[in-house]
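Follow-up to my earlier ticket, as requested here are the two runs.
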Amino acid sequence: MSYCLNPTCQRPENPDRANFCQSCGKSLLLVNQYQAIRLLGQGGFGRTLLAVDRLKSVGHRCVIKQFYPAAGFPGEYRSNHKAIELFEQEAQQLEHLGQHSQIPKLLAHFEQDDRQYIVQEYIAGENLAQELQQEGLFSETEIRHVLNNLLPVLQFIHQHQVIHRDIKPENVIRRQTDRSLVLVDFGAAKLAHPTNLSKTGTLIGSAGFAAPEQLRGKPIFASDLYSLGVTCIYLLTHTNPFDLFDPIEGTLLWREHLTESISNELGLTLDKLIQTSVRQRYQTAEEVLRDLRSTVPTYSLSFPPPVPPTHSPIHTPSRKLIASDASSLTLQGHQGKVYSIAFSPDGQLLVSGSGDETVKLWNPTAGKLLQTRSGGWWSGHMDLVHAVAFSADGQTFASASWDKTVKLWDIHTGQRLHALSEYPHVSNSIAFSPDGSLIASGGSSRRVKLWETHTGQRIRLFLGHTRLIHTIAFHPNGQILASGSSDQTVRLWDVQTGKVLRILKGHTSSVISVAFSPNGETIATGGWDNVIKLWDVETGEALHTLIEFSGSPHFLCFSPDGKTLANTSANHTLRIWNLETLRERYTLHGHTQWINAIAYSPNGQTIASSSNDSTIKIWQCD
């Protein structure tokens, strides 16, 4: 779709290939380069639109900010001379700020048809408000992560004499590629700021999140710190700041709205961030960071302890291990990050899903691309493809996309068999049952959904997780289904009844990968707490803990003979563990960016890995 940039156009939606709006006749291209495809937001100072850059690779996205102050704003902002002056100031500031990795880069700024435009880098991901809605309340660990991620960004912009003035959950995006937090929406809010920041009457910011002095038209750097504090409290309570405000005390009374206790240290830090008196509030981001780093949490209420391992944790040796001399074959063809891969049951085919919104079919032995969606095969997905899977007989293939669908395809004809709607949620993981009769999906709905492969009908819901589901897997006998979630648990379900059999507790952060051993006796789980755990499926007992110091999510898979376990690591490598000795055997090097998926071939002779570097590698096992 192409979206008309004329603010008064009554029917702005147009076909992809149109050059002029079919409703108002205006050109659909900005400077013969940028084409808007969807409206993202609209406010008093203009609009924000998702766009594509026609001069770059296919599907290269960016964000257009179109500035036109509404009639209700002071005349100085609606005068053309003043608008241009403010626009140029803003563009210059964004050009400097965009040098920070957690601020969108400024790509272009120009004027067309008497309107000013800023083009910025598109940040793929969900904002913290969406994450809260989908995954539930934030934990202390996650709030500390938010603070430690964003405070250095505020320190950077304040050093450049810039006040953001609109920090809130919607303006913080968790980037898909590395999960770092990106601060957005500098442009629209700042375009209306007067040159004299102390001028009373400049009411810029979001109600409930703006500091008292900002509401009086006198924002300072500490105003951003106040907004960050309120943002954290909102993520902890999911309660409107207005509902937390006590007019008698003159502050937010938020602790009684907590559903989980937090440490006294974090509570005092948040209290100081939201002080209505500027003198009693933190003055700089550096002060907050210093307090966070100097305190060790002591909890006012105790939480249930994790299930202790029956054996002592096995630590990765601190010495550098010698990398395996295993050779690799690199498959190139995707134009975006490769999020998912799967071997066919006979090992003759490999399918991949990517951020370029395509799925591709490969010959993994020859390294040859066989089919791709852009050639007319498997057309249909409108967003990144996050998961792929083969049925046990190799006749059916499934792909899950962030366009909120799971699609089943005939591997021979490319015909779409079923489109399973996940709306309004997305699926992060899919898995076929061992006999191929069922397919399970799990994602932002916090539910595991079970579908009949033959009919495409949903037959069962598995309810229990309180936050986003990252990963699911069927037991080899097909009677048990495992799911891992941001609620830090793994649940084992009875496939026939939908009832939970066991809840595995022990991770201290999101569980992002689960895998059953080929004999079905053991389940391996990996999470963002840098821990791999091995559990007894029958008893739910934690058998071993493998601690990884690389700070990486652990995507896992067992070898077909069950003797080794492969996992990803933060330094773009694969680690192969000997499960008899519980020691690392060797490390595979080759990718240049984050590894998203790994899979053993059915004969165990090769391992496939896919990465943010847009490649797939096929490794020979020793």
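Run two:
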Amino acid sequence: MNVPLYLLTFAHLICAAAGEDHVSLERQLLEEGIRSGRRTCRLYCRVGIGFHLQIHPDGRVNGSHEPNQLSVLELFAVSQGVIGIKGVYSNRFLAMNKRGRLHATEWFTDDCKFRERFQENSYNTYASVIHRNHRTGREWFVALNKRGKAKMGSSPRVKSQHVSTHFLPRVSLHDKSERGFTITDRSKERRKSPPP
């Protein structure tokens, strides 16, 4: 979806005129990603109580149950089927080292390249392009445990079929106050009692 910059600027002016002074940082980050042509989203993992993958400015990678500015990610193509994942707020790239540990780095290297695969259940998996089990050839996947901590991709339990490796890209521009529906009162006309 390509939205011209002048339309978004116009929308911001209308919101400001209507009395909405505060536009959240999360919303701004997501809107900037839409304008740049890269996929800006949150990666939701349904393991445990459900977590959004987040990248911290200090290099830590984990999951947060509540969406926040650290969970706003930018997914960009490197080559066919290969992507990079960048934390928009932290300005760091998701990477996997040679032992299978997830971390974030300031520089984009081969450790930051992941193969994106679409699963039958509509979730995606992300496997390291260069790191794998050299003996068996098994791929190492980005995964979270049921407490939201990053799992070692080299762990024999981290497989593409396991729920801990399944991520759903979510684009959400809704405020917490917005809901998918509204509740209205019945009109007074319909409340009149039926004629005797």
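The only thing I checked on run two: The chain is about 15% helix and 30% strand. Let me know what else you need.
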